[in-house]
Amino acid sequence: MDAAAPFGATPAPFELLVVEVTDQGKRRPSKVARLVPAGQRVAVVELLAPRLVWFGGWKFVLSGTEEIVSDRGTLNFAQSWVCRLAAPANAIGFLARHTHDKGVELRHGAIFDRYCQKSKGQLAISCVHAQALGRHAVCADLFAPSVPDASSRSLLDTDLQWMSEERFALTGLCEWQPGVDQPPQLLRQGWLCEYDLAEPVEPVRKPKSVR
Q1: What are phi and psi of 144, to 5 degrees?
Q2: Are 111 and 55 part of one and the same domain?
Q3: Residue 119 domain boundaries
Q4: Which one of 14, 43, 78, 180 is least enclosed by Cβ atoms within 10 Å?
């Protein structure tokens, strides 16, 4: 085929969960993406070893493998999910809380501290040539489209660590400049992402006329 053909689609919005599980007989946990119908707990389909390969607007693509059990055994085949987030009407982008400080992972409470470093903007993820790595890699960028000259935040070798109903976590590498005369370093970094919601605008009250 010249292009990928859609195999199927969900008839209604599903909850997408990306979690780590440990199967019987395996010591190391493996990552799996699950589509769960609303109000239920059992997934209707699973994607093994999911990788986030593209993100734009409210759409994103997960690639991995699916399994089908037949009389010949377990068949593994490549699969991709094209997903659309059911974003709130007042969502204007994403708020990313930084999970590391100069390569050191922060404790959970520090991530939600009011003084913790945060970034806001539109999220874009694609496979590009990362000059700092000297190769192609999946990279994430947070940018503000309304501010053309604003610098963007970048995350190299981006990986989707987990996803829940309200948040998702990205991990990767970021460039850090230790000093003026020192070369930049690549340090571990992560973004804990949630919707950035526009604050409601209160209507302007007109002063009452007095006679």
Answers
A1: -105, 105
A2: no
A3: 91-197
A4: 180
Indicate the residue type of 51.
R
Kind of pairing between the strands at 73-84 and 30-37: unpaired
Q: How far apart are CA 133 and CA 135, in angstroms?
A: 5
CA 150 to chain CA mean position, Å: 22
Helix (H/G/I), strand (E/B), else coil: 13: coil
Residue type, 11: P
CB atoms closer than 10 angstroms to residue 32:
18
84 has a pLDDT exceeding 50: yes
| Three-state secondary structure call for residue 166 | coil
109: three-class secondary structure by DSSP: helix
User: Residue 203 and residue 199: Cα distance in Å, rounded?
Assistant: 13
Residue from 105, 125, 127 nearest 116 by CA: 105
**Is pLDDT of 69 > 60?**
yes
